[in-house]
């Protein structure tokens, strides 16, 4: 089971990653102001600046994870490790994501009759949710790749922000099954949604689920529909809203 010191390091790291993503959103606001609500197809300059923002804070995210991993392993085992940094996502992938969640969202809501100022606020919120996912991939991938290359590690697990969606709760319920010495099958444990506050935590030696993981596991077991992933998630959402 994760030590008290290790659990506190994970909590601090998760909070630091959320703050870093929030700083990226704040930095992106100036670039957002370049968008002309009457010319939302003209996004080249805006996207170029958003890519700079994403790249800078993605690097900070990986740097935060590097320090966390070293401190976490010292706390858990007294040992050290070699950090494997996460890769920057492809520019085209990021640009498509930000364009769809940002300007395209604004256009869609204006087309439905929403006032342009309100549509711009809606688009900015959605866009920064996507930006946060790309930024935090620096830290998440660094944890995943480093753990998978560490022969001492059992694997890694998802730690939620305490108020997860059904998908994140399902992933967290499985514990440290993701990594070099465990087989998570084809389940998409590496996926994170926009504006997600989850992080990943390495596991060393024997692992016992904490109270939150046991709750998610119970909800999953009560909700599972064999062979029907979407139905399972729908059942989990209902139970999580009533628990």
Q: Point out poorly predicted stretches.
A: none
Strand arrangement, major sheet: 1-2
Number of domains: 1
Distinct helical segment count: 8
Helix content: 55-70%
Note the beta-strand portion: 5-15%
Radius of gyration: 19 Å
Please trace the helix and strand order, writing H or E for each element: HHHHHEHEHH
Shape: globular
SS-derived structural category: mainly alpha
Strands, count: 2
Question: What is the residue-averaged pLDDT?
Answer: 92
Q: Please give the largest β-sheet.
A: 2 strands, antiparallel
Q: N-to-C terminal Cα separation, in Å?
A: 26 Å
Describe the protein.
The protein is mainly alpha-helical and 243 residues long. The protein has one domain. 63% of the residues lie in helices and 5% in strands. Helix 1 (4-32) runs antiparallel to helix 5 (116-149), helix 3 (91-101) packs antiparallel against helix 5 and helix 7 crosses helix 8. The longest helix is centred in the first third of the chain and has 34 residues, at 44-77. The relative contact order is 0.14. The model has no long low-confidence stretch (mean pLDDT 92).
